[in-house]
Description:
The complex is a heterodimer.
Chain A: E1 9-10, E2 15-20, E3 23-28, H1 30-36, E4 39-43, E5 50-51, E6 56-62, E7 65-70, E8 75-80, H2 90-93, E9 102-106, H3 118-124
Antiparallel strand pairs in A: 1-2, 2-3, 3-9, 4-6, 5-8, 6-7, 8-9
Chain B: E1 2-5, H1 26-31, E2 35-39, E3 42-47, H2 51-60, E4 63-66, E5 71-76, H3 80-87, E6 100-106, E7 112-121, E8 124-129, H4 134-146, E9 153-156, E10 161-167, H5 171-176, E11 191-196, E12 199-204, E13 215-219, H6 223-234, E14 240-241, H7 244-253, H8 288-297, E15 301-308, E16 319-322, E17 325-335, E18 342-349, E19 358-363, E20 366-373
Parallel strand pairs in B: 4-14
Antiparallel strand pairs in B: 2-3, 4-10, 5-8, 5-9, 6-7, 7-8, 10-13, 11-12, 12-13, 15-18, 15-20, 16-17, 16-19, 17-18, 19-20
Helix pairs in contact in B: 2-7
Amino acid sequence: MSTYPDDLRYSKEHEWVRVDGETATIGITKYAADELGDIVFVDLPQVGASLEQFGSFGVVESVKAVSDLYAPVSGEVTEVNPALSGQPELLNSDPFGEGWIARLTLADPAQLDELLDADGYAQLTA
Amino acid sequence: MTTVGDPAGAPAVAPGHTDLLRTPLYDAHVALGARMVEFAGYAMPVQYASILDEHRTVRGAVGLFDLSHMGELHVGGPEALAFTRYAVISDPGTLEPGQAQYSMLCTEQGGVIDDLIVYRADDGYLLVCNAGNRDAAVAQLGALLERGDFDARLDDRSDRTALIAPQGPRAAELLATLTDLDLATLGNYRSARATVAGVECLVARTGYTGEDGFELFCDARHARRLWDALLAAGTAYGLKPCGLGARDTLRLEAGMPLYGNELGRDGNPYEANLGRVVKLDKGEFVGRAALQQVQQAGPRRKLVGLVMRDNAIPRHGYPVRVDGRDSGEVTSGTLSPTLGQKIAMAYLPAEQAELGAEVEVIVRERPFRAEQVKLPFYRRPRPT
């Protein structure tokens, strides 16, 4: 069974969030990236966009499939990973690191309680 | 995340499931770590490690495919030729021993029941059909035979036949190490009986990848021996096992139709640019009158190639707009691993099919520009 970073929270839709003060960094999990296979395209929100927790905010495409992304928390997008448009494969090679997707100003820290911790997520994907 | 995809992007099937059919190589795929998905009722490998890597392996070296799910229908008896000529739209009467041709079974209305390859065998004709259309092909051929006009017999050999396909520029080098057959004399769409790695095979120089390559038909009981021998000998030639995911991107780059996407009962061969397959002058055959009408009037829609000029990947089912109007639909689309471009095939009204003309593909409700281009997208370099 895989283990997942302890400092992240996870959604059942296979996105993760890392909170640092008021900033939330979000991405997709290694499990999701492995399930998708080679990711070849990302369609990401604009800076300034307002995301709703569990609302659709973008798309990743593998060779074969198109997948919607759902925000693990609400917030306003302050930054989108500029490397992903040229190197979408970062989502496969380093999903918890260089493959981060966006940064948000965290709207409501209480929303984190609706997410899974690393153990909970590991059980979900076991 | 929620995922919407092509059949080969379907959810992985759980190990040990029992409701799906298995090819004789199922255990080999699982041992190789393949991601297995449902395809035409079979558990099939969609990829082993990476579709992109498998795709490039076939373009640059040699990939190995298990196609044992496909159907092998044998037509025998004194009037095997007359019957086959009547059943398919091509003319098997022109086939010399060992020769093969691309063909189709059509309905009386000219719709496509299946596309297949007809091989002239020692004792009749072998029709190799899509796994998903095997039942339909057997039903069609069976119904035609039941009329009693031909002294011929149909034998569905699919379950006892395995099909293993080494495909790619190094396939011939590899195969030469495992057989005495002189591959230099085996041209495209030719086949011969031979022993490969000690296994009796029908060796055909055919494929669905746009590369040089072979399809090896053998007794299902010997499939594992043949597969393992090719894997072992193949390491020296850069061989990797390849799944249905790469098979789909390879055929799409090569402009080859996929039944269910580019071909179906509601279409016809002419609109898919395959009018050359129809031999209207060979005499009576199923679908002839309807197909002759299409040929004379010209098809109402045409299959075109698209290359995206804007940044979005076209996919099966996406609408295509010409001059601001919904005009057609993408039949297949992907990011081309070889060309690095986003490519698609699509049906457009015949009068709007025009090389170089611009269209829009609607992706997630937004229009993205594309240009109509000549098919195929990719043609393999010919040895000089």
